[in-house]
Specification:
The structure holds three protein chains of three kinds.
Chain A (H helix, E strand, L loop, with lengths): L1 H10 L8 H6 L3 H29 L10 H36 L7 H20 L27 H28 L12 H32 L13 H18 L2 H15 L6 H14 L15 H13 L1 H15 L8 H24 L1 H7 L3 H31 L5 H28 L13 H29 L38
Helix pairs in contact in A: 3-4, 3-5, 3-17, 4-6, 4-15, 5-6, 6-7, 7-8, 7-9, 7-10, 9-12, 9-13, 9-15, 10-12, 12-13, 13-15, 13-16, 15-16, 16-17
Chain B lengths: L8 H37 L6 E3 L14 E9 L6 E4 L3 E4 L4 E9 L6 E10 L7 E6 L5 E3 L4 E10 L9 E10 L6 H15 L1
Parallel strand pairs in B: 1-7, 2-10
Antiparallel strand pairs in B: 2-4, 3-5, 5-9, 6-8, 6-10, 7-9
Chain C lengths: L1 H14 L19 H34 L15 H29 L7 E8 L2 E6 L4 E5 L5 H4 L17 E4 L3 E8 L4 E5 L4 E5 L5 E6 L4 E7 L11 E7 L1 H21 L6 H15 L1 H4 L18 H4 L2 H10 L15 H13 L11 H9 L1
Parallel strand pairs in C: 1-5, 4-10
Antiparallel strand pairs in C: 1-2, 2-3, 5-8, 6-7, 6-9, 9-10
Classes of the chains: A mainly alpha, B alpha+beta, C alpha+beta.
Chain lengths: ~525, ~200, ~375
């Protein structure tokens, strides 16, 4: 702590340094949070433009724009960039900005590590994106990189991909350690665990998940690296290995990973709904327990991604039942949010619109998830567009809308300026319509029998694909509006924000002025 | 800890970091531990048709003559494997409990010495725990000279405890080129042993 | 959710497009033609309706709150924030609903894992990017390649009705008999799926998986590979032809005879023209995907050109070796086991004489046979 205190004493009178070094060397949680958010939005646009390439190719049957090899590179990079480059860093950015403000701490517990964990990310993604320009192209085996397609049959760039995954894994782990240390050690006096804001709770649990599964991801890519370069046979049947083992290890990481991408959004929405319903969150304690239960169950359900690999019947039954169980705590959360709105006094500013859409659309994604959990029915859904629809319904209105809601909710605090409400609402409605137009028809496509990850399709799928592409272009283009709104806000064009611009908002972050000063809570606040 | 104020500083940060790093290292190890764990798990559950290991108490059981089970054999080559590889019989009817010998034929039509290894798999996976191989070429690597042809024996016993619902077992072998460079001298020396072993 | 479905469909159909002749806007799973697929369909609809019902209740309460409890209407917020009884209830009720869902799901699963006696056994092997069907008890097998032409895919020709879902040799099975399929793969993981059968299983290299189908209604059924397996993953359809038993038996006899004839073909005297003619067809299905229809290569240099390159104009033995044994470490597969001697000879002869490679040289099936067995 004295290290932190020292940095403090020095910085206190100076404020931020000038020029590039401010960003390169900063240990300030607000600066690092901003860098994470900017980075993740850049990655969101990059991954999104790859999605546009995919949807453009799928606009009509036949190959028009890209070749199948490149199409596969696009689906792979889109998935990797969105998961590891857009969603995860965005939540780390929110954590950096908000956790110290919410627990009444002057900064993150380990500010220098914080700087390092951010700057690893651009390095990792520079490496990942550079594979696009390598001989043989970028990784083309899907973001799930199943062996042996990714090992024996992978392009030469696979080794760079593995290295990039290692670096982003280290970055995530360091971020998670920092979050845990901050939450456990830096809370203001009087803030007991069960008084912590839900965003803090969800992030604490997320951080534990990260520490539990990112090393497993590192392990599985290390095994790939050894299979490719050092002659081992973890996943190669020719040498006594087993390709299915890859899937078990990958999904042991992969399933908790999808909760890593959604739990912090649960936290965000649990702040915004009470704020705009002007009524305390219903069932705080059960919300915390539900998140804990979801996190624990996430370790017991991985094989539901593998119902078609040939698991014996009792295995299928176990993973089916365990997966269905997740609906219980998830249901509790949805019911609690609805009960919070019930008999409130609601207004619908942009953060609330995104949050309400989050609840509705995430629930629809939950329903399709429940359908997918039913093992015998999964034989028909598996690896079709129904799955694509399902996970885009939980990730786009789940994670992404959660992030948008958070951004609109806290922008006044970050910038000291209110965003333009009309533009914000326009952004919401265009996103909402575009997103549903893009992803709802995918349910139909999957049920009608369209496999995922194909660059071209049979004629009976043509109509809904066209609708889906139109929706996707609409959703994609709309995000430039978000960029405009944020830039406008950052530049200070707009109404000045008060310390607490939202009538019903609760929490320590609203006790500091807007914009939040460079250093906050040098002396800890007292929490009743 | 619950109400810890932020001032008890550095030592508790060190402790948290140490615990977390311990967790990270432990989970990294766990990822690798999943490899042997998975093998054990497969052996117990029969996932992926990994057949039960060597069966030592071969004589102990006597054949259940009232019951017949069809055992089917199929063989395929891995990528780039030019050998001719096939079972001598397509299928055979057996009584659970009796020890059966069948031959697979392998021939190396190329002009160089090659080493192959067959990987076994059994369907349905529910039957894997009840299929015991007492002797199998799949336990060893096979080295064949240019143009050499061998018969490779497999001795197996279908367990009497095989569930009644299973009537047919299919044993599949996939033959993989081990891509080993064999020095010429050693080739000549090992020829006799290879042939002998495969009888 | 169903309401959404209907509304979205009507809205889109009404406003967006004057749908093409082939449009069918299929929105739901088809019940299929087997008992399994019908059971799955029933299960799917049950779960869907339960979800719709839950959705109506939850969203109903929510929309009503949104409508009635808004500040603009002057609604004053209540202050309750917990209620143990309610919270316990909405933990228990969903659990009970899940149990209700699990019962039919378990029953369906048990039915699928039926291992009763089958009458036809077929080994299905996935290759990049084709299927191979081996009739285990009958000693013959063949590859099944997509037959949709590159011209259709690249929009140089009108797309046919079964665009991307047509193959040269479909899998053929008898109607009304239990057929057992043993799935494996040669290179990477593939997945064999026919939606109308309700059957999908991964084909994994080195391992075999078992599934079964029993189709009562003769007809042609189509599906696709559903596990990403590389470049042409979208171009390896599954086509199954279900024949009435007598026709199936005739077909079977034909196949056995053809297999026998194939063996004899290697003994026949071939002319250069015959080989080139046969080779053109073989080339189109086996080679053109990578080396290009006109032999000019592809993949940005990953797949070499065959126009005037030394491999196809110089040493015949080297050419034979590459085609039969492949080139390890590259995408060039060993075709020795995939193609018959006649086809190998034909395609090599074709390559040596097409696109201006007029070497005038030919390789006979006998030579290939001898080469493979030397």
């Amino acid at each position: 702590m004295s290290a932190v205190a020292d940095t403090h004493a020095q910085d206190h009178h100076h404020g931020p340094a000038k020029g590039m070094t401010r960003w390169l060397l900063t240990t300030n949680h607000k600066d690092i949070g901003s860098m994470y958010l900017i980075f993740s939005f850049a990655m969101f646009l990059l991954g999104g433009s790859m999605a546009m390439v995919i949807r453009a190719e799928l606009f009509q049957p036949g190959l028009q724009i890209v070749e199948p090899e490149f199409f596969n590179q696009m689906t792979t990079m889109h998935g990797l960039i969105m998961v590891f480059g857009a969603v995860m860093p965005a939540f780390v950015g929110l954590a950096n900005w908000m956790l110290p403000l919410m627990v009444g701490a002057p900064d993150m517990a380990l500010p220098r590590m914080n700087n390092w964990s951010f700057w690893l990310l651009p390095a990792a993604f520079l490496m990942l994106v550079s594979t696009l320009f390598m001989q043989g192209g970028a990784p083309n085996f899907g973001w799930t990189f199943y062996a042996p397609l990714s090992t024996t049959y992978g392009p030469p760039s696979t080794t760079f991909f593995i290295f990039a995954v290692h670096i982003m894994g280290i970055s995530s782990i360091m971020g998670a350690i920092n979050v845990i240390a901050t939450i456990l050690n830096m809370r203001a006096p009087g803030m007991t665990l069960m008084k912590m804001p839900l965003f803090v709770w969800t992030w604490l649990i997320t951080a534990f998940l990260l520490i539990a599964v990112m090393p497993v991801l590192a392990g599985v890519v290390t095994m790939m690296l050894m299979d490719i370069n050092f002659g081992t046979s973890f996943f190669d049947a020719a040498g006594g290995g087993d390709p299915v083992l890859f899937q078990h290890v990958f999904w042991f990481f992969g399933h908790p990973e999808v909760y890593i991408m959604i739990l912090p959004a649960f936290g965000v929405v649990s702040h915004i709904i009470p704020a705009f319903a002007r009524k305390p969150l219903f069932g705080y304690a059960s919300m915390v327990y539900a998140v804990g239960a979801i996190a624990l169950l996430s370790f017991l359900v991985w094989a539901h991604h593998m119902f078609t690999v040939g698991i014996p019947i009792f295995g299928q039954l176990f993973f089916m039942y365990a997966t269905m169980l997740i609906a219980v705590p998830t249901g509790v959360k949805v019911f609690n949010w609805v009960a919070t709105m019930f008999r409130g006094s609601m207004t619908f500013e942009t953060p609330m619109l995104f949050s309400v859409a989050f609840v509705i659309l995430f629930t629809i994604g939950g329903f399709s998830g429940l359908m997918l959990a039913i093992a015998p029915a999964d034989f028909q859904y598996h690896d079709t567009y129904f799955v694509v629809a399902h996970f885009h319904y939980v990730l786009v209105p789940g994670a992404i809308f959660g992030i948008f809601a958070a951004a609109y909710y806290w922008l006044p605090k970050w910038t000291g300026t209110m965003y333009d409400e009309t533009l914000g609402k326009t952004h919401f409605w265009l996103s909402f319509v575009g997103m549903n137009l893009a992803f709802f028809p995918m349910h139909f496509l999957g049920l009608a029998g369209m496999p995922r990850r194909i660059p071209d399709y049979a004629l009976q799928f043509a109509d809904f694909n066209m609708v889906s592409s139109v929706g996707a272009f609409m959703f994609g283009a709309t995000q430039l509006l978000f960029l405009f709104i944020v830039v406008k806000c950052v530049r200070g064009y707009g109404e000045k924000a008060s310390a607490k611009p939202w009538e019903g908002a609760e929490g320590l972050e609203w006790t500091v002025p807007s914009p939040a000063p460079y250093h906050t809570f040098a002396t800890p606040p007292d929490v009743k | 800890m619950a109400s810890t104020p932020q001032n008890n500083g550095r030592s508790s940060n060190t402790r948290v970091v140490a615990w977390c790093l311990g967790g990270v290292i432990g989970m990294f190890g766990f990822g690798f531990a999943m490899v042997p764990l998975y093998d054990v798990f497969c052996e117990i559950t029969g996932i992926n048709g990994k057949t039960a290991g060597r069966y030592e108490s071969t004589q102990a059981t006597e054949a259940d003559v009232n019951r017949t089970v069809t055992v089917q054999f199929t063989a395929q080559n891995g990528p780039d494997m030019p050998w001719v590889f096939k079972p001598e019989v397509r299928s055979i009817k057996v009584h659970p409990g009796e020890a059966i010998t069948v031959n697979f034929i392998a021939e190396n039509p190329t002009t160089r010495t090659m080493v192959g290894q067959a990987v076994p798999s059994l369907a349905p996976s529910e039957g894997t725990g009840y299929f015991h191989k007492t002797e199998c070429f799949c336990f060893n690597q096979q080295q064949l000279e240019a143009g050499e042809r061998v018969e490779m024996p497999l001795v197996f016993i279908v367990d009497r405890a095989l569930p009644d619902t299973i009537h047919k077992l299919t044993l599949s072998y996939t033959l993989y080129d081990q891509k080993l460079e064999v020095p010429a001298a050693e080739t000549a020396a090992s020829e006799s042993t290879t042939t002998n072993r495969n009888g | 959710m169903h309401v959404h479905v209907k509304r979205a469909g009507a809205l889109i159909a009404g406003s967006l497009l004057s749908a093409s002749a082939l449009a069918d806007w299929q929105m739901n799973m088809s019940p299929g033609v087997t008992d399994t697929s019908n059971e799955i369909f029933g299960l799917h609809m049950t779960i869907l309706w339960i979800c719709v019902a839950i959705g109506v209740v939850v969203f109903g309460v929510m929309f009503w709150s949104i409508f009635a409890h808004r500040k603009s209407k002057g609604h004053k917020p209540a202050h309750f924030h917990e209620n143990t009884v309610v919270e316990i209830l909405w933990t228990i009720i969903p659990f009970a609903i899940l149990v209700i869902m699990a019962i039919p799901a378990t029953a369906t699963l048990v039915d699928m894992y039926d291992t009763s006696e089958s009458e036809v056994d077929i080994k299905v092997t996935g290759y990049q990017w084709r299927w191979k069907y081996d009739y285990i008890e009958d000693d013959f097998g063949y590859f099944s390649n997509m037959s949709t032409s590159r011209d259709e895919i690249y929009n140089r020709m009108e797309k046919s009705e079964n665009y991307l879902l047509d193959v040269d040799n479909p899998m053929v099975i008898p109607a009304g008999k239990k057929v057992r399929l043993l799935l494996t793969a040669n290179d990477v993981i593939h997945s064999w799926w026919v939606p109308n059968f309700g059957v999908k299983k991964d084909a994994i290299p080195g391992f075999i998986n078992e599934i079964w189908v029993k189709v009562d209604k003769p007809g042609t059924y189509r599906g696709q590979c559903t596990e990403l397996c590389g470049k042409d993953h979208g171009f390896m359809p599954v086509v199954v032809e279900v024949l009435p038993e007598e026709e199936y038996n005739l077909w079977l006899a034909d196949q056995r005879e053809a297999a026998e004839k194939e063996r004899q073909l290697t003994e026949k005297d071939w002319t250069l023209e015959e080989l080139v003619e046969r080779g053109e067809g073989v080339y189109a299905t086996a080679c053109a995907a990578c080396h290009g229809q006109d032999g000019s290569g592809g993949g940005g240099g990953a797949f070499p050109s065959l126009r005037g390159t030394p491999v196809v104009t110089e040493d015949i033995q080297a050419h034979l070796d590459i085609v039969v044994n492949g080139v390890s470490g590259t995408a060039m597969q060993a075709f020795g086991a995939q193609l018959s001697e006649a086809d190998l000879a034909a395609v090599i002869t074709y390559e040596r004489n097409a696109w201006g490679n007029n070497t005038g040289e030919m390789v006979t099936p006998k030579e290939v046979f001898d080469y493979k067995n030397q």
